[in-house]
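Quick one:
INPUT:
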């Protein structure tokens, strides 16, 4: 190794110190530095790509709803406001993201309150169809004023078998009424990779053909060709009929099968099986129906199922169901005169008789205040009895009485009573408020 003389080492050290002090002086505060070039930053033109997160989750850049998104009708809320919710964006988990069997992930949607009601405490996002992929069937949503947005998250787990899975959810108010866009999480659980087998040489043999018996005929194949209801104005609390048309498009007879219908397609929503059985020859159709009464009002996605017990061996076992969305409107009161009675019966000329008129609200909502009137004759210029009624609950009746004396005797006279004579109550049926009754008026 070569040794540097002491004097040269001192000179070298001094030079290094001098250079260092010069550099520090150049960068000291108060000194201006003239740039030798100008750096121009251009706005990025590339699109942002989703960023993978741990466990396969993906952060997706929020975007506005597609302009082709079908608007969802408003649902009437408390006090005359409307309930609605609009999907805004997937915050995590793009459609068809892949997850290994059993992998956990969190799906986050951004949802906007597009109605005029403020979402109350207790409003939830609930699963309505598909694979739940979650330990819970609902999550709470914070109170949100109209036109505001919120992010709602659900912890989920990928199913254990390969396939494509979708879990569909919808908003629900504190009274259990569903509203707004149906949103979903859709993932793919891929099939496990398999090793490519090494080809081996197998001695070639000529197999002996074994004759097989061809079936005598094609099996049946049941499909639902139509699903509808028998009213254009489905209402809460008003019975209607579910009508189904079933066809056997197979090549042989489908014997003694059953059909069923359910009011919603979410997990735990059971089918109602129609009574009796059906038998259909090839290419034959049948129309059947069942009565149903909706206890609530909302948009219901319903489903009918042919061969609901899977007792018919069919050519295609995957085409037996059909769905129908029914927009059930809120119930309304419906006032009728259920009876008119006299005491004595018949009345007697110039003697006071007691007139009893019974009014019933056969609707599914309470009626507010209204008046009832009774005419001693349909040709009389004014009513003989007039009663104020403060209100009437659904399915409630009230008996009203008054006294009246006929000044003449009649072999036959027609009387009339009318409920809600001033049309103060908005009713389901405004044409059934009147009732007539014929009576004689005896001589003393």
């Amino acid at each position: 190794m070569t040794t540097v003389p002491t004097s040269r080492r001192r000179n070298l050290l001094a030079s290094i110190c001098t250079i260092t002090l010069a550099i520090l002086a150049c960068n000291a505060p108060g000194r201006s530095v003239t740039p030798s070039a100008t750096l121009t930053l251009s706005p990025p033109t590339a699109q942002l790509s989703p960023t993978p997160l741990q466990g396969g989750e993906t952060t997706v850049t929020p975007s506005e709803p597609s302009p082709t998104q079908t608007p969802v009708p408003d649902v009437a809320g408390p006090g005359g406001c409307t309930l609605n919710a609009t999907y805004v964006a997937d915050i995590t988990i793009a459609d068809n993201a892949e997850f290994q069997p059993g992998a956990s992930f969190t799906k986050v949607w951004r949802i906007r309150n597009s109605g005029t009601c403020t979402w109350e405490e207790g409003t939830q996002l609930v699963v309505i169809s598909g694979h739940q992929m979650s330990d819970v069937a609902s999550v709470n949503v914070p109170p949100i004023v109209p036109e505001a947005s919120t992010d709602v998250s659900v912890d989920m787990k990928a199913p254990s078998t390969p396939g494509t899975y979708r879990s569909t959810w919808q908003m629900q108010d504190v009274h259990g009424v569903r509203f707004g866009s149906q949103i979903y999480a859709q993932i793919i659980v891929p099939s496990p990779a398999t090793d490519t087998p090494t080809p081996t040489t197998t001695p070639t043999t000529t197999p002996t053909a074994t004759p097989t018996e061809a079936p005598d005929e094609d099996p049946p194949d049941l499909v639902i060709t139509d699903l509808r209801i028998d009213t254009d104005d489905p209402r809460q609390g008003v019975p209607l009929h579910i009508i189904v048309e079933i066809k056997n498009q197979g090549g042989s007879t489908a014997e003694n099968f059953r059909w069923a219908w359910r009011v919603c397609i979410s997990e735990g929503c059971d089918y109602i099986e129609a009574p009796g059985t059906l038998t259909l020859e090839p290419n034959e159709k049948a129309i059947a129906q069942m009565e149903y009464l909706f206890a609530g009002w909302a948009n219901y996605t319903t489903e009918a199922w042919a061969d609901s017990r899977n007792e018919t061996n069919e050519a295609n076992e995957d085409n037996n169901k059909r769905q129908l969305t029914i927009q059930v409107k809120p119930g309304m009161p419906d006032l009728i005169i259920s009876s008119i009675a006299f005491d004595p019966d018949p009345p007697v000329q110039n003697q006071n008789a007691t007139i009893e008129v019974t009014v019933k609200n056969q609707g599914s909502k309470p009626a507010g205040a209204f008046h009832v009137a009774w005419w001693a004759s349909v040709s009389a210029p004014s009513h003989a009895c007039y009663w104020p009624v403060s209100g009437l609950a659904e399915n409630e009746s009230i008996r009203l009485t008054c006294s009246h004396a006929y000044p003449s005797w009649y072999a036959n006279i027609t009387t009339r009573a009318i409920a809600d004579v001033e049309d103060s109550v908005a009713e389901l049926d405004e044409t059934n408020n009147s009732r007539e009754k014929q009576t004689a008026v005896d001589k003393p």
